[in-house]
């Protein structure tokens, strides 16, 4: 969210390549980090804290010394494992047999979905994504629509029965057909039931959001395939 400049070394000209507006800066993704006191000894911020402190103070000599201490400890630990025949088993990385490269076990290469993804964070070294779950919200919205229509349907049936009762003579029973043909009870409504009762669609919002969700899903799948091809 900062300015980016292009400097042309041949003629010394400089131009602004990117200058974000205040609106862009407000929309930037929030950075979530693990609190220092909650980090383990081998997490980078804690492990390299003395090196970082020396760099921030401008003490290059001290930073080099602290870096040497860390690297020497790692070399000694590796030497002891070899002598004891202890196999090193990384918790978060695995070696790719094809490329012989080390890869993060929990890497997430799918494109970021701004409509569904809220935040990405690390917990115990494992990368995780907090999602909105659009499909769940759509399901809840659909259920709410059905329940509302069932309520209105039952209320209509109750009013119909009341009108039937008031139309009957008080001195004798009579089988009189009523103009109200609404069923007296409704247990459950499926999509087909809704059409049978005259509800061709749950609501305009449901239809639009379902179609929009399908388009998003199709686009995400296409992006994922492209990302996989690029990765290969």
TrEMBL record:
UniProt feature, compositional bias: Polar residues: 167-188
Feature: compositional bias, Basic residues: 151-164
InterPro entries (UniProt xref): OSBP_sf, Oxysterol-bd
Cross-referenced Pfam families: Oxysterol_BP (PF01237)
GO MF annotations in UniProt: lipid binding
Signal peptide segment: none
Region (Disordered): 143-191
Gene3D superfamilies per UniProt: 3.30.70.3490
UniProt protein name: OSBL5 protein
Provenance organism: Pampusana beccarii
């Amino acid at each position: 969210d900062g300015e980016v400049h292009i400097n042309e070394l041949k003629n010394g000209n400089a131009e602004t390549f990117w200058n974000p507006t205040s609106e862009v800066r407000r929309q930037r993704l929030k950075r979530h980090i693990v609190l220092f006191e909650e980090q383990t000894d081998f997490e980078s911020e804690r492990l390299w804290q003395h090196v970082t402190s020396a760099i921030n103070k401008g003490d290059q000599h001290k930073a080099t010394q602290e870096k040497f201490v860390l690297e020497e400890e790692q070399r000694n630990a590796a030497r002891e494992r070899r002598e004891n025949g202890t196999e090193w088993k990384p918790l978060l990385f695995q070696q790719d047999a094809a490329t012989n490269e080390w890869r993060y076990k929990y890497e997430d290469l799918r494109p970021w979905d701004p409509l569904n993804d809220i935040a990405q964070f690390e917990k115990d070294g494992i990368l995780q994504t907090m999602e909105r779950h659009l499909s769940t919200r759509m399901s809840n919205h659909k259920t709410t629509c059905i329940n509302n229509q069932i309520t209105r349907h039952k209320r209509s049936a109750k009013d119909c029965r009341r009108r039937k009762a008031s139309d009957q003579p008080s001195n004798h029973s009579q089988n009189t057909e009523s103009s109200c043909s609404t069923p007296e009870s409704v247990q459950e409504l499926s999509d087909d039931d809704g059409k049978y009762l005259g509800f061709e669609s749950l609501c305009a919002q449901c239809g639009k959001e379902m179609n929009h969700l399908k388009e998003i899903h199709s686009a995400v799948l296409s992006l994922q395939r492209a990302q996989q091809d690029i990765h290969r």
